[in-house]
Amino acid sequence: MAVRGDVVTDGGAVRSPVRPLTVRVDVGGTWIRTESDGVLRRSPAPSRINHPGVPAPVLVDRLVEHLVSVAPAAGGQVVVSLGAAMDDVTGTVRGSGPLWGDWLMDRDLLGVLRRARPDVVWHVFNDVTCGLADFADAVPREAGASAGYLTISSGIGLKIADLGTRTVRVDENGLQGEVGHLPAVLPPELAGLGHLPCECGGVGHVASVSSGPGIARVAAALGIGAYTTEWFRQAVDAGDEGAHTLLAVVTRPVAEVLRTIWVIQPWVVVVGIGGGVVEGVGGHYRTALLRHLRGAGSYAAGPADAWEHRVRLLDRPGADVLRGAQLLAEGALVVTRAQEADHRP
Ligand SMILES: [Zn+2]
To answer: Which of 38, 149, 168, 325 could link 130 by a cystine bridge, Cβ 3.0 to 4.6 Å?
Structure first.
């Protein structure tokens, strides 16, 4: 066997790169994106959204089969961004509305993958943590300050990192920022939307109204028969009144989440906002958010112009969760239990 350039040859055949091959996978509620050998492939996710009649445990098994099938040769690694509530410290998965509906689990996904292919290094991280890692990489290190990342797509999630210590503190279940399943704050005239269902099995949640599927539910409730995601994107761009009313309604609960963050944690200097919904609507999304944030202010929320600096819309294609997963695998951000961080000497 001889090394020629960056390629290991064995009897004349190119066998594998010297550096272990990395496969990067983004598992969302609608699509799985798999990047291998510099090529990005997209396939339908084994999710509740795509397969509403299939039991959740079967969907999890199909996901494991997919991940094992794309794993590289021995010595390589797989980094996974997973659109599920999970413990980033242990790799244990708790649940995901878009992927598995209201099924709650306590599944050691990382352990399952390691047992299936022990010759490969596995890293699995929550997709919002991945988005945060990518976003925070561009925010300067600052002691005492924090930065957040909020994703609005088939689900809604938030995570906040300490910019000084580069840590993400989670609770004893490994969770932080599952804001999509908080009650949606809506004005009295829209109280009827509080009965809309959520993928998690609840009703009246932020995701019931503001996630991708939530926007479709609100459009139906408001009688906007023309609604499709493509119509929404184009109609908002064209200044359509109905589309802008819809945008104002679905951004309201998100604005209230942001307002709550800054009232409770004023050291959060910036929140990056990304995800499929935001990428579709573009700059109009931030404009609608800022209108809510400035409009219903009180002394508690600080000066109105402060929102300008705090809300950053991520340029297309939003946070790069594939890059973020890799950064987490390299330790750029470290996820720690809140209790452990508290008791650090
Ligand atoms: Zn929910």
So the answer is: 325
Average pLDDT of every residue of the chain: 87
Cα 213 to middle of ligand 1, angstroms? 12
Instruction: Say which CATH superfamily domain 141-321 falls into.
Output: ATPase, nucleotide binding domain (3.30.420.40)
Q: What is the pLDDT of residues 284-342, one digit of tens each?
A: 999 999 899 887 656 655 666 677 777 776 655 557 899 999 999 999 999 998 766 55
Q: How far is the CA of 81 from the centre of ligand 1 (A)?
A: 21
User: Are domains 18-130 and 141-321 of this chain identical in fold?
Assistant: yes
pLDDT at 12 over 70: no
Is CATH 3.30.420.40 what the domain over 18-130 is classified as, yes or no? yes
Q: How far is the CA of 181 from the centre of ligand 1 (A)?
A: 4
Q: List C-alpha distances in Å: 10 to 13, 119, 296.
A: 5, 20, 68
| d(CA 174, ligand 1 centre) in Å | 18
In b/e form, how buried is each residue of 130-142, taking b as 16+ CB within 10 angstroms? bbbbbbbeebeee
